[in-house]
Specification:
This protein is an alpha+beta fold. Helices cover 43% and strands 25% of the residues. It has nine helices and twelve strands.
Length: 216
């Protein structure tokens, strides 16, 4: 973990456009050379984030996803500024448009892209990836028309495929966002889960339980 001085920390966060901030300060910056700087606040001293910082989790998850063949960001630097009590991660911007933005601007694109999303989720689950920050704002349509994944800190990667209960929990992560629910409902939850089940190669009993869970 690189040590970042307060002077360098302020210089880095002042090097581009602020994309996101909260009441505690700047969270995400896009630099003039098309890099993303994402900061993480240490909320409590004695917490899991103290022993395993979110910046380190982000980097480790990025490396594992890339090794598994998924399109995602490639981290260049992670560091900690003691004076600011902030961790940061720096990586080249993954150029693309979020599915949420695409669907809101062009609703006609939902059928093809949501089928692709269902297949991507199936592949993540087969590879043991529990992506807790799964929503349409964290999936990008890239220039090569494939899907990419961003916002990697809240993720667990297992050595075997996810259990059915973990898969159900992950779909609930996606469906907690009203704007995403509306888009999926317009496409059809049945069609979405059918595309998922085909790609995930779930057995008949597992499919029945999955559909039952979402009252289909």
């Amino acid at each position: 973990m690189e040590k970042i001085s307060q002077e360098e920390f302020k210089k880095l966060l002042g090097s581009g456009e602020v994309l996101e901030r909260d009441r505690y300060g700047i969270k995400v910056v896009e630099t003039d050379d098309s890099h993303i700087i994402k900061t993480f606040r240490l909320k409590r001293l004695l917490s899991s984030a103290f022993f395993y910082p979110y910046a380190q989790r982000f980097k480790n998850n990025s490396k594992k996803l890339l090794q598994k063949g998924f399109k995602t960001v490639s981290v260049e630097r992670i560091g900690y500024c003691r004076e600011e009590k902030r961790y940061l991660v720096i990586y080249p911007k993954l150029a693309g448009e979020t599915l949420r933005a695409i669907f809101e601007a062009e609703p006609k694109n939902t059928q093809k892209r949501l089928t692709e999303l269902a297949r991507l989720i199936a592949q993540l689950h087969k590879e043991g990836v529990l992506f807790r920050s799964l929503h349409l704002g964290n999936i990008l349509l890239l220039s090569d028309q494939t899907l990419g994944i961003i916002d990697l800190s809240d993720m667990k990667i297992f050595s075997s495929p996810l259990s059915l209960q973990q898969r159900i929990r992950n779909f609930n992560h996606l469906l907690r966002y009203p704007q995403d629910c509306k888009i999926i409902d317009q496409f059809g939850m049945t069609r979405f889960l059918t595309a998922y089940c085909e790609a995930a190669e779930l057995g008949t009993d597992a499919q029945k339980r999955l559909f039952s869970e979402f009252k289909i």
